[in-house]
Amino acid sequence: MSTITVENVWAEFGDQIVIENLDFEVKSGAFLSVVGPSGCGKSTFLRMVLGQDRPSRGRLLLDGKPLPDEPDADRGVVFQRYSVFPHLTVLGNVVLAYELGQSRFLGKLFGAAKRRAKERAEELIVAVGLGAHRDKHPSALSGGMQQRLAIAQALAKDPKVLLLDEPFGALDPGTRAQMHALIKPLWEQAGMTVIMVTHDLKEAFNLGTRVVAFDKVRHDPQAPGRYGARVTYDLDLTREGAVPV
Ligand code: ADP
Ligand code: MG
Q1: Nearest to 82 by CA among 16, 171, 20, 18
Q2: How much of the chain, in percent, has pLDDT values that exceed 70?
Q3: ipTM > 0.90?
Q4: Ligand 1 mean position to 35 CA, how many Å?
Q5: What does the alpha-carbon distance between residue 109 and residue 126 come to, in Å, rounded to a whole number?
Q6: Which atom of ligand 1 lies nearest, measured to the CA of 45?
Q7: Per-residue pLDDT tens for 112-141?
């Protein structure tokens, strides 16, 4: 189970309202795509779910319990440009992420647990198509390969929730299509809840089981800045009638 409840969440910075009263639930195992114009608060929302930013009002719950307001191993994240550790190899990066994820149960890993970390990291590296590159450093990889590494790293923590902030935005169309083919089965196998921010509508609809659009709705023309983004569309793509054509 990993249901996320967004309960009357606001984001305000000084007197600027960025997000105004988001109130919805993301069901366990859903793949939620979030779309909306640039600057409307999508990344701010994702950072709040990650625990990097705090809502100025309202609450975020995971399975009914408040999400810790520090990032933790329950939440994996991939940004548009992810800073993987440059001094570690592909394998080293994924092993480290796995160890961070496991250490919440076990503390520091030794012996068999350490071997298991390497095995699991190798499985994930193969799963994202980097099997031939496991001993390379990130600087030797293309942008698409670095995003694959970032995904392997996020999954190595065995997170309940995977947060993706325009993860494929910097990639060329061919690589992007490859990443779509990669992420869907990984999400299905892991049974995670995914929230992906994207400005690519095709990506939003192809990958998502639900698409939510944020937008700023002006309701007081005399008070510029005194309104924030709200949900303007909320489409459940698993319902009959919502079929791709
Ligand atoms: P999006 O990801 O939809 O393009 P963002 O969430 O990055 O939008 O930004 C939404 C707005 O929130 C922007 O106007 C940005 O300047 C503002 N904002 C985000 N974080 C902060 C912050 N820490 N302090 C002040 N303003 C912020
Ligand atoms: Mg953004």
Answers
A1: 171
A2: 93
A3: yes
A4: 15
A5: 23
A6: 6
A7: 878 888 999 999 999 899 999 999 999 999
Three-class SS string for 133-185?
A: HCCCCHHHCCHHHHHHHHHHHHHHCCCCEEEEECCCCCCCHHHHHHHHHHHHH
Question: Does ligand 1 lie within 6 Å of residue 146's CB atom?
Answer: no
User: What is the number of residues in the chain?
Assistant: 245
Nearest-CA residue for ligand 1 atom 5 is 41
Q: How far apart are CA 13 and CA 174, in angstroms?
A: 39
Measured in angstroms, how far is the CA atom of residue 243 from the centroid of ligand 1? 34
74: which DSSP letter?
T
- What value does the mean pLDDT take over residues 7-19? 94
157 CB under 6 A from ligand 1?
no
Q: For residue 194, report the phi and psi dihedrals to the nearest 5 degrees.
A: -115, 135
Ligand nearest to the CA of 36: 1
Q: pLDDT, tens digit, for every residue of 103-114?
A: 766 667 778 878
Which residue is closest in CA terms to ligand 1's atom 6?
A: 41
The whole-angstrom separation of Cα 130 and Cα 125 is 5
The candidate with the shortest Cα–Cα distance to 53, out of 152, 211, 163, 153, is 163
Tell the residue nearest (CA) to atom 22 of ligand 1: 13
- Look at ligand 1, atom 19, and give the residue with the nearest C-alpha: 44
Task: In whole angstroms, give the CA distance from residue 78 to residue 97.
Answer: 13
